[in-house]
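Quick one, T. Sequence first:
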Amino acid sequence: MEKDTKKQEMIDKINTRKKEAKVVRRIVTIVTLVVILIIGIVGITGYNYVTSALEPIDPNSTKGIEVEIPIGSGISTIASILETNGIIKNARIFKYYTKFKNESEFQAGTYELTQAMTLDEIIESLKTGKVYREPVFTVAVPEGLTLDQISKIIEKNTKFTAKEFMERVNNPEFIQSMMKTYPSLISEDVLAGNIRYALEGYLYPATYGFYEADPKLDEIISTMISQTNDVIKQYESILEEKQMTVHELLTFASLLEEEATAQTDRETIASVFYNRLEIEMPLQTDPTVLYALGSHKERVLYEDLEVKNPYNTYVNQGLPPGPIANAGQVSIEAALSPSETEYLYFLADKKGMNHFAKTYDEHLLNIDKYLK
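Structure tokens:
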């Protein structure tokens, strides 16, 4: 009987242990699931937080915020300054991000940054000393356009009309302000009485990025003039050596730009013009006739060549009063560095290839050969 009792007690203890083990396993499972769940929540929250910290604070912001980076600032100090000024969301994330990308050698200085800038744009700005931002919109101005044609591009890409653009570029006060701002570029030459548009030829053809949704019209125009100023500065010593004014250069370059085709040798055409100027022979270039007429025509007629206008180089000797278009750098360089030839004539065939001649008789042969 006693043996049976001990046997039962042993069985009860084993069953109790089994129940306890089952409870423990259940508790361990629950705790494990809770821990995994907490880790998952923390991980997702952390991921979202880090992702958010890597993005711009306000992608639509255009307001500039002045930020001063003192000399000798380390990445921790820079990150703290950027966070304090509201440029980035989290200084620690910015610090880790720069280390991850192995970025360093940031420059001290005063920066105008915005909350729309990405971390990469901010880093690039601090490395180069320049502000790198994605433009809100761009305006592309091809080579060889007149102010009238540029006005239509402005109307298409901004809130300003073509009429407003033309009124502004011809406004005497605005012209004077540009002359004061860029004295080495815009001279009294643009105010001559026979000039159609004072700033014709002074708006550089390029693609311009603007970082405000609604930049002022003056800013748009002055940006293009500033670019012309930057380009011309490269050739100041050559201009001085050739005793050539900026106005003459831009006028000459505009003729090359308008005569150019995809296959044109601008340097050789430039030599033709220089050779004609040297012997006081009229330039006789059709684009000046079209500019004089104030309209585009597929074909210049003989009667057009006789139009009485200061820009018509068939009836007037020398360069026209001013540029007839806005020339690009290739034409500017060709005007400064023409080929050395004895050519006095040239024509473009139906495929755009140019054919040059030293005499009028040779020129007539080229006309018979390539144009008839």
